[in-house]
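User:
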Amino acid sequence: MENALIYEVIGTAILFIMGGGVVANSILKKSKAEGAGWVNIAFGWGLGVFIAVIVAGPYSGAHINPAVTIGLAAAGLFPWQDVPGYVIAQIFGAFLGANIVYLVFKTHFDATDDPDGKLAVFSTMPAIPNKFYNMVSEIVGTFILIFVIFYIAEPRFVADMIEGQVVGLGSLGALPVALLVVGIGMSLGGPTGYAINPARDLGPRIAHYILPIKGKGSSGWHYAWIPVLGPVAGAILAALLYRIITI
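Assistant: Predicted structure:
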């Protein structure tokens, strides 16, 4: 179990280094990739998932997302007693990744005047603020993520390091899950920035709040609960439907 948590930290840190990195690359001033756009960002996040699952999959199942962990537990495919450890590891991993992204792009953060753009590197905010519809966006996006993951992973992928426990994604699931995340970003990401992962939003938001980022603005705490609760609700709904269909 200890090794599994270490790999959840590593996997989620890699996820955010690649995902937060592609956002920073695309929007911060004087980056060679400035203006690369939404397609670049969607593929960057998808490839971040691919790399993270390759590394962590054999050891922890590469949940790298509390919504995945909770969804698997709600579907009866992962022990509830292991959920808190996984979630804490994921949030810490994303926090760690966010700090690394800041170090890599420090001079570009300094060169950028837009505080909202700086926050966008770390966490999501809605294009049009509307708590109900923003919540719907996160629920639907995460529902698609988790429901499809059940059919990619099913109960057959296990982690050798966790005796007797079914945990979800192995390395064989890396490419289809990466493409799934790209698809969600391309089709459903516009309204909220598609957090679909409480850890990737909350951990980096904490980092944004703490880090001495030049000219930063609000960390958006008034919105922060939506990319946490929305994905959890979407994951539970996906698990319930999966159980109804498969039982």
